[in-house]
Amino acid sequence: MKSPLHPIMFAGTGSDVGKSIIAAAFCRIFRQDGYQPAPFKAQNMALNSYVTSDGLEIGRAQAVQAEAAGIACQSDMNPLLLKPQSDHTSQVVLHGQPIGNKDAYDYWRRGSSEIDFRGEVCKAFDRLSTHYNPIVMEGAGSIAEINLRDRDLVNMSMARHAKADVILVGDIDRGGVFASVYGSIALQTEEDRKLIKGIIINKFRGDMRLFEEGRKMMEEICGVPVLGVVPYYKDIYIEEEDSVALEQKRRQLTEGKVNVAVVLLRHISNYTDFDIMERDPRVNLFYTNNTADIEHSDIIILPGTKATIDDLLELRRNGCAAAIQRAYRNGKTIIGICGGYQILGEMVEDPDGIEGNIANLPGLGLLPIRTTMHPIKTTRQVTFDFNGQMCQGYEIHQGQSSTEEKVFIKNNCIGTYIHGFLDNQPVIDYLLKNFQTQSTTSNVQSIEEFKQQQYDSLANHVRQYVDMERIYKILSDND
Known about the structure:
Blueprint: E1 8-12, H1 19-32, E2 38-40, E3 43-45, E4 49-51, E5 57-59, H2 60-69, E6 80-84, E7 89-94, E8 97-103, H3 104-108, H4 117-129, E9 135-138, H5 156-162, E10 165-171, H6 177-186, H7 190-193, E11 196-204, H8 212-222, E12 226-231, E13 258-263, E14 268-269, H9 275-278, E15 283-288, H10 291-296, E16 299-302, E17 304-305, H11 308-317, H12 320-329, E18 333-337, H13 339-343, E19 347-349, E20 360-362, E21 370-386, E22 389-401, E23 407-410, E24 413-416, E25 418-419, H14 425-432, H15 447-465, H16 468-476
Parallel strand pairs: 1-9, 1-10, 2-9, 3-6, 10-11, 11-12, 13-15, 13-16, 16-18, 18-24, 19-21
Antiparallel strand pairs: 4-5, 6-7, 7-8, 14-17, 19-20, 21-22, 22-25, 23-24
Helix pairs in contact: 1-2, 1-15
């Protein structure tokens, strides 16, 4: 039996530095090396979420990390999830269940809640740590937000509770990596600085030898060893947590492939629904709110949204609603998933003001359904029959629609509440069967095989560029 390791936390100099991906890589590395790791992020703010087998909601990044670790995800891996509903408010999900909406100021103000969030996330960590080792922890944003230090639940305060060894991740691709790393360490209290045992420089481009001097300089000024410099990669596919990645997917129409336009909503959620289809060699999938691109695409997808009515209003304002309706009349395939499904119906009603002060709003009228928003959220994993084959997915939605069908098809329009709908090869093949493309066959590798291969590739990539021997020594040191 392996000797136990300390918990390890990957904290960041800022958002989008690659903490989630590095944590996923280490979940896989530890599993490969014979340990039983599990991911943990005390508090996550994201619109990408996932449903556990017992119907509880967690951040999608922790579900991905659990998959990399080879274990089923559970709510203790992400006990507190904040799902933004506007610039100022978020739905608060505690232990997998929504407990209401919170204004950002009230949430961060001390003493503003009857719930001891700090105590709850610490108890979740303690439960998890009795079953798994090591716990691979992820911080949030920057660890140098000193104005929030006394209210921090996810960064250094959590590292103190867990007695974790902290590895600081810096993104060299965005520039200013010396200042961001040095400043992040310098702004810590003396107690917290002692927890930072190493630095990983992420997203390096170019000749690694050119950073050797910089590596030595960083160690000298920070007093902390640089444990690895991880190059940027392009050929490994791991689900992204942040919608920042969508800006890189604003591609254009392409001849010889099936053009799939995902309508870029302001409150888009669970955009990982399209990762598998995006990698199909027959497909050119891109995100857009350009009306001409929408009308000229072969398939138009309305994705999930955290604010159905607000996004429906915006679609009418920017002309996308009319473009989708014209595309439908011209025989293009229209797909709505979750909130997008609700938008395709005849009416969205919100009598209790779940989403705001608009009581009802006509939908695009492409499907004969009506949706009513309810305070009770549906969260569950589901199986469904599609063309005689069993498929899998999960539901996360606030409203209820006037049909019991899991997948509603009318003419060239398809609606469903099921996230992961397009992760099923029978669905993809059904949608693409009538198109003649330069690439006529789909990838025969199963989705599960593909994912496992990608986790192994990620682990091998990171392992090649970090000092694992030194990291294991840090995690085993009892001093």
